[in-house]
Specification:
Structural class: alpha/beta
CATH class of the largest domain: Alpha Beta
CATH superfamily of the largest domain: Methylthiotransferase, N-terminal domain
Number of strands: 19
Bound molecules: S-adenosyl-L-homocysteine, iron/sulfur cluster, FE3-S4 cluster
Largest sheet: 6 strands, parallel
Number of domains: 4
CATH architecture of the largest domain: 3-Layer(aba) Sandwich
Length: 441
């Protein structure tokens, strides 16, 4: 192996979900503490980190292609590190495919970043740490946060649900909740620094605390604690498994002023046979019951979902059931994916028998349906007053300020810079490309 010079600067590229984004900011923070300077391009930096995602084949192929092109000479002095889900998923086999990688650290080894880098610098030998379980409490005070108003806060890591298509339980390991006091303290500190909106992160936030009955704090209890923090205007959470959407949580959405009225709890499919094969542990009817209950308690609640089309053996009729479920419920937010077989997951015991072209047709059909809901959802707000957290001046039409509503819609309204960082009531008069436009009231 060739030894490389200690890096003075780094670049980090993030793939995948919000959890990865936060992990990237954590690693960036740890490197900044060490004295490295963050750069915005690969060319400028000595250390290149790729924080990777394995959830679908395309996500992995993007990274492989990217690092594959780094074999070239202009990159030969740079240190290349692969972090995140692909490190856990591929382990040493990734070194064999891409020998230019100098080290790999998995999702449960973020605390190892600096020691691993040191080990590599002293020995010049490839390093890898990919623990199966998260055990090491992280120091979130170093997170390199770029958004002055909004922040992600991890409350639980890992997933115990084992949906048959999903790689996440294998790349992130079992569920491990973070101590409630540590979460409350971090949120307080963020608010003291100016954060107005916090998104609580976990693969399944509703499982929070179930692994630690000794704490006596479940997800809704935590929400009640956070709601008491003065100055914390908005709390969101991502993502929820429908099984764990409890009446207590629904009541929290109804009763807590800070908790935004947007609940993302993916239905994934509308056919009971497919839901069973996916090991989602609920039926379509049970899902609909939860929606009805939530809507009866919180009439203006917005719902979000993820959907998978083309799961093995999904028939046209079963796909139509998903279509009808989406049509009946009317989600405000929907992320729709074509099934992608993941090696090592139980679903690969069935042939990936829906042709790619058919998956794409189903995907497009649901996207077109969802487009109507995006429009309808926004048209319904014309004439209404919404709350906007004002983030910045709009780039194109600069008379406008820009921000997000409580239910996660972009909104623009004319106003002065002094309003940036505040919450404003805005009466909507029109819409343009999914964006609400209005005037301050
Ligand atoms: N923990 C979250 C989701 C994590 S992955 C939850 O359960 O809600 C995000 C989304 O990717 C999933 O909801 C699912 O819709 C999709 N997904 C996961 N594995 C997939 C696969 N093998 N192929 C296609 N989509 C997949
Ligand atoms: Fe994957 Fe299911 Fe866990 Fe979500 S709940 S991360 S889809 S296994
Ligand atoms: Fe991807 Fe891992 Fe997130 S597989 S979606 S980065 S948990």
């Amino acid at each position: 192996m060739v030894k490389k010079n200690p890096p003075k600067s780094f670049y980090i590229r993030t793939y995948g979900c919000q959890m990865n984004e936060l992990d990237s900011d954590l690693m960036a923070g740890a490197l900044i503490e060490r004295g490295l300077v963050k750069k915005e391009t690969e060319e400028e930096a000595d250390l290149l980190l790729f924080n990777t995602c394995s959830v679908r084949d395309l996500a992995e192929r993007k990274v492989m292609g990217k690092i594959g092109r780094m074999g070239r000479r202009s990159f030969s002095n740079k240190i290349i590190g692969v972090t995140g889900c692909m490190a856990n998923n591929k382990k040493e086999s990734l070194f064999a495919k891409l020998p230019q990688i100098d080290f790999m650290i998995g999702t449960n080894n973020i605390h190892d970043l600096n020691p691993v880098l040191d080990e590599f610098l002293t020995t010049g030998e490839q390093q890898i740490r990919t623990d199966g379980t998260f055990t090491h409490e992280l120091d979130y005070s170093v997170v390199d946060r770029s958004d002055p108003l909004k922040a992600y806060v991890t409350i639980i890591r890992g997933c115990d649900k084992y949906c048959t298509y999903c790689i996440v339980p294998y790349t992130r390991g079992p569920e491990v909740s973070r101590e409630p006091q540590s979460i409350v303290d971090e949120c307080r500190e963020l608010v003291a620094k100016g954060t107005k909106e916090i998104t609580l992160l976990g693969q399944n936030v509703n499982s929070y605390g179930k692994d630690r009955p000794d704490w006596g704090v479940l997800f809704h209890d935590l929400l009640y604690q956070l709601d008491k923090i003065p100055g914390l205007e908005r709390v969101r959470f991502m993502t929820s498994h429908p099984c764990d959407i409890s009446p207590d949580l629904m009541m929290a959405v109804r009763d807590l002023p800070s908790l935004c009225e947007l609940v993302h709890f993916p239905i994934q499919a509308g056919s009971n046979r497919i839901l069973k094969k996916m090991h989602r542990m609920y039926t379509k009817e049970e899902y609909f019951e939860k929606v009805a209950k939530l809507r009866s308690l919180v009439p203006d609640v917005s719902l979000g979902t993820d959907i998978i089309v083309g799961f093995p053996t999904e028939t046209e009729e079963e796909f139509e059931e998903t279509y009808r479920a989406m049509e009946e419920i009317g989600f405000s937010v929907a992320f729709i994916y074509a099934y992608s077989p993941r090696k090592g997951t139980p679903a690969t015991r069935w042939a990936d028998d829906v042709p790619e072209s058919e998956k794409q047709r189903r995907l497009q059909k649901l996207m077109a349906l969802q487009e109507n809901f995006y429009l309808r959802d926004r048209e319904n707000l014309i004439g209404q007053v919404v709350e906007v957290l004002v983030e910045k001046r709009n780039q194109k039409e600069s008379q406008y300020l820009k921000g997000l509503t409580r239910c996660w819609k972009n909104a623009l309204f004319p106003g002065g810079d002094e309003l940036i960082g505040t919450l404003q009531k805005v009466k909507i008069h029109s819409i343009s490309h999914h964006t609400l436009i209005g005037d301050r009231v």
